[in-house]
Amino acid sequence: MSFKQIVTAAAFILTTSFSAQSNAHHAFGAEFDANAPLVLRGSVTRIEWVNPHAWFHIEVTKDDGTKEQWRIEGGTPNTLLRRGINKNSIAIGTIIVVDGYQAKDRSNSANGRNITLADGKKMFMGSSGTGAPKDGADASDR
Questions:
Q1: 27: closest CA among 131, 106, 128?
Q2: Are the C-beta atoms of residues 58 and 70 closer than 8 Å to each other?
Q3: What digits encode the pLDDT tens for the residues 15-36?
Q4: pLDDT confidence of residue 58
Q5: Superfamily of domain 28-141
Q6: Pairing state of beta strands 109-116 and 67-73?
Q7: What are the sequence ranges of the domains in the chain?
Q8: In Å, how far from its chain's centre is CA 85?
Q9: Ramachandran category for residue 129: left, alpha or beta (phi over 0 → left; psi -120 to 50 → alpha)
Q10: If you count DSSP H runs as helices and E runs as strands, how many of each does the chain have, helices first?
Q11: Closest by Cα among 137, 142, 104 to 122
């Protein structure tokens, strides 16, 4: 392989890997509706500790008794770790209250700002710097 072919191949690989990463991350306003705040109460069924955002899955019981699954987007795992939240901070089966914002497509997906535990402990789990509303953020995020 010639030097020119190696450089071309390397440039192609770098370009495609960077574009895939940039497409995977999004601003708050691209997916969530700041004018559609919601409060959900449910049992944690699954936690995905992945980049670019952690996801908390909860089962919510509606007023009519039916159950539905919700996906709650949090900040990046690194951001949550710096706030003292890790993948073991909330056990599966824990009842939580989530203050957040509905997905624009009105699916059972939301951006979570705060999680409140049964003992009243509140954890800010939202993303910062993504265009998300600042209300509910703790002092370190302002």
A1: 131
A2: yes
A3: 554 444 444 455 777 789 989 9
A4: 98
A5: Nucleic acid-binding proteins (2.40.50.140)
A6: parallel
A7: 28-141
A8: 13
A9: left
A10: 3, 6
A11: 137
